[in-house]
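Hello,

Our lab assistant flagged a job as stuck in the queue for most of the afternoon. It eventually completed. Since we weren't sure the result was trustworthy after the delay, we are filing this so someone can double-check. Below is the sequence as submitted and the structure that was eventually returned. Let us know if re-running is recommended.
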Amino acid sequence: MTSNNAFWDKIAERYAAMPVGNQTAYEQTVERVASHLNASDQVVEVGCGTATTALALAPKVARMLATDASAEMVRIGREKAEAQDVENIEILQAGIDDPRLATGQHDAVMAFSLLHLVDDLDATLVQVARMLKPGGLFISKTPCLRAMWYLRPVLPVLRLMGKAPGGVAFFSPEVLEAAIRRAGFEIVETGDYPAKTPPRRFVVARKG
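-- returned structure --
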């Protein structure tokens, strides 16, 4: 549920070449995610970008479905999967509201650096719930930008220059977690990786 496909298609090659901003925080996040996954799990990552995290976690599960609405991100992700010879991953061009995802059969759904970019947070979380089995896990990490309110007037200029996506939301961790609960989830773990402002809120939530 985003309207930024052209932006992400345009920057996909540059995005794929960028190093991880904070390697320690990234490794902490991947470690926490992996601790909640089982070898028998069927897992989806929505908004997977070039599938870096999906590929890192695929060996931990039975099947990984990595999805992104950007055709160029998906193309690069598929090339990486082939180069790394990861066989239990499928990388699919699909938005969060794609009916192919709403099976109610997945053990876990992951969304990283995505929820602050969606058009409608509540509707997105309802779609996530439709993907999961009862008791399935929604695992996310989201920049909570409320403290960076001063960026609001700058973003329209950056969008005109092609340097920022549209629809960036400025909410707090409390607002994010309240929305997750409204969608019928019970929050079982939270954290901030890295532990600094603005928080990158890590949330593990279980579907009721």
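-- support follow-up --
The delay was a queue issue, not a problem with the job. The result is valid. The chain has one domain: 5-207. Residues 71-84 form the longest helix (14 residues).
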